Amino acid sequence: MKKLVFIFVFVVMLMVVNPVSAGTHKQMKLSNNSSCDVVLKDVKTDPVIFRNKTIKISSTLSNLGKSSCKEFYMDYFLKSADTGQNVYIGSIHIGGLGSLESRVVNSSFNLPKTLKNAEYYVRIVLDSTNVLNETNKTNNVVYSQKKLSLVTGRPVYITSDHIKNNTADNSKVDAIMKGLQKKGLYAVNYGLGPNKHYSVLKNIKVPDNALIVNIYGGACAGTIWEMAQPYYKKALGSRKVFSIWINTNVNIKTVKFLKRASDDNDTPQYGKKGGFPQFQDTNHNGKFEPNLGEKDGLSNPGKLLDNNGYKYLYQQDGNVEKIVEAIYNQANN
């Protein structure tokens, strides 16, 4: 009786061996006499992965052989695009695959804390313990076609208004972008244009956790008023916006009244739906008192931004180092 119990316990222990939980693993050999050919394609993951977070990888696994494959393992690595070094991140068990069968394989792994901020490819080794009797072993190592960036903080997408000229404006944005990348952030020059601050929000490829940085060369009341509107907030979603004003004498935080910009033909006229609000109403009767000031614009635009939860920076001289530091703090806040 004691002998039978011992054998039962031993068999169970073999069944629960899990190489995924091992850092550097040595997997058990599995008997398999079938002739098959496993291949992998369409290896995909998010373009931006945050340090110490989970990476999700999808791929399509197929058996091109005439025989079924029994169980085997797939090992996952991140290969440095710079040094070529492979870092093991995990392994999954495949319980078998029929002849000419295909299936989508979704997997996720916690990234090692030792990984550095850099660009990587996903590397996958099929049948990592070499237990399958395959007709072709040369196709068992597969890479993702696109690189992923391992970063700290939110990914940053930078837009700019037309301030000086295309060359100077792009150079400014590129300098900011490179400064952020040196600090370990994922940063993109999203482009120039008067409507880029909104079109970037409508781009579904921009991640939900992105930090949108909009650089302006002039203070536009219509742009600030737009940021308080429901349609803008809906497009923004869970993303974060950081506005920066340079090359202007108007300090958004301290200016009392900001008039409609001379080229603003989009904001509805005062009194119409979507137009500038009735800020000048000291007796609170709901009527604008024209003797108190202009009505076609915004009173205390900085307060409006504050009340709607937006962060912003007034950096008149456009100092790149100060702008980079401010964006970095917002991306990691």
From TrEMBL:
Span list, region Disordered: 272-300
Compositionally biased tracts (Basic and acidic residues): 284-297
Gene3D superfamilies hit by this protein: Immunoglobulins
Ranges for domain CARDB: 45-142
InterPro entries hit by this protein: CARDB, Ig-like_fold
Protein name, entry field: CARDB domain-containing protein
Upper taxonomic lineage: Archaea, Methanobacteriati, Methanobacteriota, Methanomada group, Methanobacteria
